Amino acid sequence: LEMIAKTMIKEALPIKCLEAVVLAIYLTRKCVELQRFVMSFISMHGENKYSHVVLGVCCRGRFGAVGLSRQTDLMFKPLRYSKLSELINDFLFAYSGHGHKVVKLNISTTIPHFPHFLETINWKGFTFLPIAHLDNRWAPVVDEYARISTDGQSTSGSNRKLEHFSVQFQFT
Asked: Active-site residues (predicted)?
């Protein structure tokens, strides 16, 4: 990822949302206070399916997001949400404002700041279908997932807890 990010900076070419997430991961690698995770959305507009991804962040119990989109309300979100479910609801509301229905949301496990050689990001640490749970019954489960994943600085320990968590709570 580091080489890709450095190349993007050097070339200064237009990028899409996935490249923006890679760049954000690289640029925040030294912000050890910041817990980082990827949020990928699959939405429908009519018969068309769309994919979008942002870097979710948590610092001192506040959630936000960094990303890139043609729609301003589908990218940057300041660290003002006290729960991950509030951040997700803001994205869901923004999507509905653009005539989209989010049919699937993937939340990765926490991204380490100094990854070991060949360590990969678990892009689908937690998956659920918000359209099937319009009553927000998913919110407490998502907030528990966030609590476990952002608990402490030990990413590997948190990720082991999340593997057990995702087995217990399946929303797909």
From this structure: 17, 52, 69
pLDDT of residue 152: 53
166 tagged catalytic? no
What integer pLDDT is reported at residue 172 of this predicted model? 44
Task: Choose, from 40, 43, 52, 108, the residue flagged as catalytic.
Answer: 52
Among residues 59, 69, 113, 133, the one annotated as catalytic is: 69
Query: Is the CB of residue 64 less than 8 Å from the CB of residue 49?
Result: no
The yes-or-no answer on residue 45 being catalytic is no
Q: Coil, strand or helix: which one is 46?
A: coil
Residue 58 designated active-site = no
112 φ/ψ angles, rounded to the nearest 5 degrees: -65, 155
pLDDT in tens, 96-139: 999 999 999 999 989 988 766 446 778 888 888 876 556 777 88
Active-site choice (17, 108, 158, 166): 17
Is it the case that residue 141 has pLDDT exceeding 80?
Answer: yes
